[in-house]
Design a protein that fits this description.
Distance between the termini: 29 Å
Mean pLDDT: 96
Shape: globular
Largest sheet: 8 strands, parallel
Helix content: 40-55%
CATH architecture of the largest domain: Alpha-Beta Barrel
Low-confidence stretches: none
Number of domains: 2
Order of helices and strands: EEEHHHHHEEHEHEHEHEHEHHEHEHEE
CATH superfamily of the largest domain: Enolase-like C-terminal domain
Structural class: alpha/beta
Radius of gyration: 20 Å
Bound molecules: magnesium ion
Number of strands: 14
Strand content: 15-25%
CATH topology of the largest domain: TIM Barrel
CATH class of the largest domain: Alpha Beta
Length: 340
């Protein structure tokens, strides 16, 4: 089955409210959607612009696809999968092409994506929901609103003001009993800040602290992991399988956050998940602010690897103004089930 044509376009989905982290603030999900055609089928892939994280904006992603488009057209799908992974292009562009190719492989063999991924357990998944960085009062209000909508797993985004972080996390945790609180600092803290935060929140229950320090500072990450009982999750420090090995072998974090856009798609994500499974390390299956097709495939992956995926961070659709029909999954509060 050969690729006959590749088409790509820029897409935007408006958000209910702006999404704010220590690194950026956005009002729309912006992504590239790529269509890979064979004689009979089409596979769709997507990659969002996340310049602050992967270094790729919309232009970079489109440029990457354009750079290998002529080579891919006419290539066998299986061969194209290998070629994309070895190509010298950004990880998001790779992810978009990789998922479109896997969808084509599934279609070629007449399998649903659930069969293709070997999913046996269709029990619902539960995603966390992001509480954007803001004034403490606003964040508490947002957390309460989410909690009322049965979104009880809250990923709270904090930034470099450590006093604000402590106050906000304490306020939310003490207000919302039964909420599971994940703290994401997106590298904004120093080692000292982090230890101070841990000491000042000792009496409240936190599910994890995500990437407190700079991605390159694995020594500090390891010191933090050794210092506390709270699970420490490496996010920006882990893009590739090599990064995952480095963090896991050095025991610098308790868990790793795997995102298709960081590692270059489903194919490498599976390698990382299998490695983590071998090592007995739990993962978060995360995402950027993404379009429905890339979230869709990440959800299949999370379901297929549910034994090693302890946390699901695939809440983008909940942030859209409207839920798109492209999703194979339903969202009810934070519960996600495959549509019948
Ligand atoms: Mg993160």
């Amino acid at each position: 089955m050969k690729l006959t044509k590749i088409v790509y376009e820029r897409k935007q989905i408006p958000l209910k409210t702006p999404f704010i982290t220590a690194l950026r603030s956005v009002e729309n999900v912006e992504f590239v959607r790529v269509y890979l055609y064979t004689q009979e089928f089409v596979g769709i892939g997507e990659a969002p612009a996340t310049k602050a994280i992967t270094g790729e904006d919309i232009e970079n992603i489109m440029h990457s696809i354009a750079a290998i488009q002529r080579t891919l057209e006419g290539m066998e799908v299986q061969e194209a999968l290998l070629y994309v992974q070895s190509a010298d292009i950004g990880s998001s562009a790779k992810a978009a092409l990789d998922m479109a190719l896997l969808i084509l492989l599934a279609k070629q063999t007449g399998q649903t994506l659930a069969d293709f991924f070997g999913i046996k357990d269709f029990a619902p998944l539960y995603t966390d929901v992001t509480i954007s960085f803001n004034k403490t009062d606003t964040m508490l209000q947002d957390a309460r609103t989410a909690f009322e909508k049965k979104q009880h797993i809250l990923k709270v985004k904090v930034a470099d003001d450590i006093e604000h972080a402590i106050k906000t996390i304490r306020t939310i945790a003490l207000d919302l009993h039964g909420a599971e609180i994940l703290v994401d600092a997106n590298q904004a803290w120093s080692l000292e800040d982090t230890l101070y935060f841990i000491d000042e929140t000792k009496d409240i229950k936190l599910a994890l602290i995500e990437q407190p320090v700079d991605a390159k500072d694995t020594d500090s990450l390891k010191s933090i992991t050794e210092y506390c009982d709270i699970a420490i999750l490496a996010d920006e420090a882990v893009f590739t399988l090599e990064d995952a090995k480095k963090i896991i072998e050095s025991q610098s974090a308790d868990m790793i956050n795997i995102k298709l856009m960081k590692c270059g798609g489903v194919t490498p994500a599976i390698e990382i998940l299998k490695y983590a499974r071998d090592k007995g390390v739990m993962c978060m299956l995360g995402s950027m602010l993404e379009g429905p097709h890339s979230i869709n495939i990440a959800l299949y992956l999370a379901m297929a690897f549910r034994d090693v995926v302890k946390f699901v961070d695939l809440d983008s659709p909940l942030l859209y103004k409207e839920l798109p029909s492209e999703l194979d999954f339903m969202y009810e509060g934070c519960k996600i089930s495959l549509k019948k």
